[in-house]
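Section: Multi-chain targets

For targets with more than one molecule, the full set of components is provided together so that the structure can be written out for the assembly as a whole rather than chain by chain. Components appear in the order listed by the source. The example entry contains two components.
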Amino acid sequence: MTNARKPFHLNAFLMGVGHHEAAWRHPRTQERRVLDVKHFQELGQIAERGKLDSVFFADGLAVGPRIKRNALAVFEPVTLLAAIAAATEHIGLIATASTSYNEPFNLARKFASLDHISGGRAGWNIVTSGTEDEAFNFGYDAIPEHARRYERADEFVDLAVQLWDSWESDAVVLDPETGVFADPDKVHTLDYQGERFRVRGPLNSPRSPQGRPLLVQAGSSESGKEFAAKYAEAVFTAQRTLEEGQQFYQDLEERLPKYGRSADELKVLPGLVPFIADTEEQARALEQEFTDLISPDYALRQLSSLLGVDLTEHALDAPLPPLPPVSAIEGGKSRFTLVKELAEKEELTVRQLIGKLGGGRGHRTFAGTPEQIADELQSWYEAGAADGFNIMPPYLPGGLEDFVDRVVPILQQRGLFRTDYTATTLRGHYGLDPVESQFTPVRIQASA
Amino acid sequence: MTNARKPFHLNAFLMGVGHHEAAWRHPRTQERRVLDVKHFQELGQIAERGKLDSVFFADGLAVGPRIKRNALAVFEPVTLLAAIAAATEHIGLIATASTSYNEPFNLARKFASLDHISGGRAGWNIVTSGTEDEAFNFGYDAIPEHARRYERADEFVDLAVQLWDSWESDAVVLDPETGVFADPDKVHTLDYQGERFRVRGPLNSPRSPQGRPLLVQAGSSESGKEFAAKYAEAVFTAQRTLEEGQQFYQDLEERLPKYGRSADELKVLPGLVPFIADTEEQARALEQEFTDLISPDYALRQLSSLLGVDLTEHALDAPLPPLPPVSAIEGGKSRFTLVKELAEKEELTVRQLIGKLGGGRGHRTFAGTPEQIADELQSWYEAGAADGFNIMPPYLPGGLEDFVDRVVPILQQRGLFRTDYTATTLRGHYGLDPVESQFTPVRIQASA
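Its structure, encoded as tokens over all components, is:
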């Protein structure tokens, strides 16, 4: 396995008081600090204690059917990460932001600012926002078409990268004698004229420590994978079996050469929801406690939204009704496919499906001892299905603490995971080289 | 004077290493930490040491003619304030954001997030973005017309307030027994249908500690004053003489009843750039040192942008060329008028005008001893020209430290200014009542 020689990475995907649908109802989250910034700063510190590469906050631009269930989105992730940056030193800081409902100039600025504030720890999970609820908050009558969203995302990222590149890294001179603040020859007007965006530039921010945020992507549709191969440096993905993981990994890898990229430039991190206990039996019992706390009516609403079919009146112990083909779905195509296949392959009733999805909305759940979890991660990694993992604690902070304090040391003992940070930036943690501005002329060679 | 009985307020308007055009070249700013978040966190802490009401960061969405001169806008202000929030406990946190180049949903969310992160200390300085350079970064060929920008701002703020109000303050229930996270009857869909915006809502954030950010405004054109009277809770303004200050104050106050508002609901804070030294002579000499460091060519570019006339080839020791009437200006009308009147009234050459503007771009500069500065502030306050001041240190951190450590104690000894915080929120510091959601039914009275 060539893969076994690549470094191993760990991202903590954080959400409210945990990923499990019913996390906030379980005694392990007694405090339920969903509105408390200190809760999130402490999570950043716990992840840093475990030497993890990064923490990640997803986001959506609507409340949708979750009003009664969970406060996914109390904090706008970039402002939240700025506050976490101030309470940590090393941990990478990844935020979701939408290409469909932002202005490229504002978004590029915001991430440049987070990168400055954190000393080079910013990452952007690029999403195209596939729900109707979001579309309604931005003047649309329906979700913009899947293909159109990806076309916009493509132009958006191309432009954002140019904005980040508009200041060369040594443009700021700060020479009090000559009065030169910045060298105008190293600050570039873009006059960008795309199909959707016209932006003169430059960005109103000198080049940030990383040059630009780490680019992350998480959609696994055909357009999503192509987009990832073109732009992404890390991919978060939901893969339920080792075989599917290997297939996805290889699929992505094979798309890279078309864009002049190599496997080293893209890290694949499947999601894992770990239930950790001293024995396997206790871990399974813990998972069951959470499953038992799921409120079926909220879960039905969420499943309806995910599948684009109204299930709110559907019998819980019946199988799913016939679902539309994926080609008819304009929202998240890959998640739709994953859930549809899961329900059909395992012949699940709606109640069983809800239980399976409760932990991580389609991500793999694994209940076991710390050793068993480490084994599982190692086997995927060594079998070429992952460069690391997107750890999704079902409850917080306990679920993250257990992973950091009980699983990470085993990975470290096995020589799989770092025992201390060796880099200061998020790109550095992920083993990626610094990025130079595309507008930097090859000055040294030219004079050689 | 009724005014003398109102509490006295102080905001620190912070910019890079100081407001003075040439601040970064002066030995007092030897470190020039314009790219260092710790510099700004320390400024927040200094302001908090002085028990100031708030700190404020202006913003512009373009580099424009400032590339060589100053890094006004390294940090996006809301992310910067989130990082400052994490390093402070009481100080209010005010950021400029544009109604012309943001989506209402995103902007409302961002400020709600800052208000949550800071425990109720967020403020929004509402601007309509009056420069061509900004328009070019958002797909426009010219500045959108002044009147159109204010129409958009009006609808934007109306909608933003509804978004903040879409969650009643007690909507989050968090009852693990019943499984009710939030009470859907207290979370309101808006179905907002304006001329420019259609937004379904609700906001994807529970009501923040202040309900909404403090609303601040800083344009003094006719439209600007009307907008302030309708929405603003604090106004930053450039007034060069006591008489002009009194006139502006009275003008604003007289506009309030039309909107059902009283003078207590709006605080007027004229800007002041203080040069502080042990003697008046030393303070004047200090100011002169800064004036001498202004680079005329950069200043000419900035003046050209401000006046909408190309002055880059104009003789420094000649008077200004004839200027267009204010009706022809689509950018910042009030600043244009202020500079035009200053140049004409005092018959200034371009070089003299640049010197006068160097400290605060049209704001009043005052050089004196701590006592003299306290006298000046007190006299404006008692004469009904101000509810407090927008202090614009010409260099940082020294200029802020001198104000906090030398002027504030005098104001405190005179019983003018608080000696400790008595409130926990920015609205509280400014003596404003909490805001209830407009969608909260009068439940208690109804049952009485």
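The domain at 2-294+362-447 of chain B is CATH 3.20.20.30 (TIM Barrel).
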